[in-house]
């Protein structure tokens, strides 16, 4: 059975008829709302609940009285990251997020963090890097997987016969790698027919990854490795829930606060982004970030289209291919 929550009026209702992913009118106000699988929806609520509990515990710990003579007036500068950026939980702490939280607080913005969102000991970052680096070739695969989830399919077949040998091998290798990372529950390659058969993993975190989370991970790991390579201290976060003084709620996809610099904010769009431009403009103004450091990374953009949008709006648009180049100019 499905469930939906109206973003307009907050009404929650079960839906035993519509397919998961369908858009249905709210039973109270009529606003179109997305139907989610009940288990998936509850699991996400539980994740948010425990993330909030961890943050409350961290705040209580931070409120422990200290000697006034030794209490700093500003958040301590974070140190550079050492070790493997693709395999560390060193960032998943309250202390690592504190400088970013303090910066937001100076603008009277409350922030809620999920510390696990920057834990790279899993395979989300490696998988995202593999997809992003070859996205021009892998875009169809990702869209096929995303579509299969939305239609509640459990499997899909990829016919590679229409690709060159090099491209077919690359797609097959990615599928095999994602299977080894458990993003697919089953992988079979029928070599004579050149068909890859995949069973979808039903874990909510994997589904979210294919539905757009991979792009956030890609932007995060690209910026993380650049900052680490510069030897800079920093504070970073993903999926930051921010509350402004007027109680407006927003989510920041990827945020880094390099030592001695203003924040870098990356909003990631793996689908339609045009309807959100005005929202991004308002968000940038309210954060007080200069245009070069408020970045909209959209997979649908070419470099030429991004350049055109940059001349029209007080934002920085980048394609997937130009993201790293732009980030290098900021550090």
In short:
The chain is of the alpha+beta class and 331 residues long. It contains 9 helices and 14 strands.
Beta-strand fraction estimate: 15-25%
CATH architecture of the largest domain: 3-Layer(aba) Sandwich
Query: Roughly what is the average pLDDT, rounded to an integer?
Result: 89
Main sheet makeup: 6 strands, mixed
* Tertiary shape: globular
- Overall number of strands: 14
Percent of residues in helical segments? 40-55%
> Residue ranges: pLDDT <50 for 5 or more in a row?
61-74
| Class per helix and strand makeup | alpha+beta
Distance between the termini: 48 Å
Counting DSSP H or I runs of 4 or more residues, the number of helices is 9
Order of helices and strands: EEEEEHHEHHEHEEHEEEHEHEH
Number of structurally distinct domains: 3
Strand arrangement, major sheet: 6-10-11-12-13-14
User: Which fold name is given in CATH as the topology of the largest domain?
Assistant: Trna Endonuclease, Chain: A, domain 1
Radius of gyration (CA) equals 21 Å
CATH class of the largest domain, named Alpha Beta
Structure write-up:
It is a single chain. The protein is an alpha+beta fold and 331 residues long. Helices cover 40% and strands 21% of the residues. The chain has nine helices and 14 strands. The strands form four sheets. It has a six-stranded mixed β-sheet with strand order 6-10-11-12-13-14. Strands 2-1-5 form a three-stranded antiparallel β-sheet. A hairpin with a 5-residue loop joins β11 and β12. About 4% of the residues have low confidence.
């Amino acid at each position: 059975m499905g469930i939906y929550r109206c973003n307009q009026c907050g009404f929650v209702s079960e839906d035993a008829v519509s397919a998961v992913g369908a858009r249905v009118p709210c039973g109270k106000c009529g606003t179109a709302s997305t139907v989610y699988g009940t288990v998936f929806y509850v699991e996400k609520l539980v994740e948010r609940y425990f993330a909030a509990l961890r943050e409350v515990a961290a705040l209580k710990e931070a409120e422990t009285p200290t000697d006034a003579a030794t209490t700093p007036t500003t958040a301590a500068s974070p140190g550079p990251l050492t070790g493997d950026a693709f395999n560390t939980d060193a960032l998943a702490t309250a202390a690592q997020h504190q400088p970013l939280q303090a910066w937001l607080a100076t603008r009277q913005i409350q922030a809620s963090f999920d510390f696990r969102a920057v834990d790279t000991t899993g395979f989300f970052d490696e998988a995202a890097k593999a997809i992003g680096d070859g996205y021009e070739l892998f875009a169809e695969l990702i869209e096929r997987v995303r579509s299969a989830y939305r239609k509640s399919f459990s499997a899909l077949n990829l016919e590679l016969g229409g690709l060159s040998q090099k491209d077919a091998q690359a797609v097959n290798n990615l599928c095999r790698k994602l299977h080894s990372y458990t993003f697919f529950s089953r992988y079979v390659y029928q070599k004579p027919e050149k068909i890859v058969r995949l069973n979808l993993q039903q874990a909510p975190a994997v589904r979210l990854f294919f539905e757009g989370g991979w792009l956030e991970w890609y932007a995060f790991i690209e910026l993380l490795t650049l900052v680490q390579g510069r030897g800079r201290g920093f504070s970073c976060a993903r999926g930051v829930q921010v509350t402004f003084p007027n109680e407006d709620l927003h989510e920041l996809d990827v945020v880094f606060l390099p030592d001695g610099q203003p924040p870098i904010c990356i909003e990631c769009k793996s689908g339609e982004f045009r309807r959100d431009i005005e929202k991004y403009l308002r968000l940038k103004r309210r954060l007080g970030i200069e245009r070069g450091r408020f970045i909209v990374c959209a997979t649908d953009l070419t470099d030429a289209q991004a350049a055109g949008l940059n001349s029209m709006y007080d934002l920085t648009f980048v394609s997937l291919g130009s993201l790293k180049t732009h980030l290098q100019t900021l550090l």
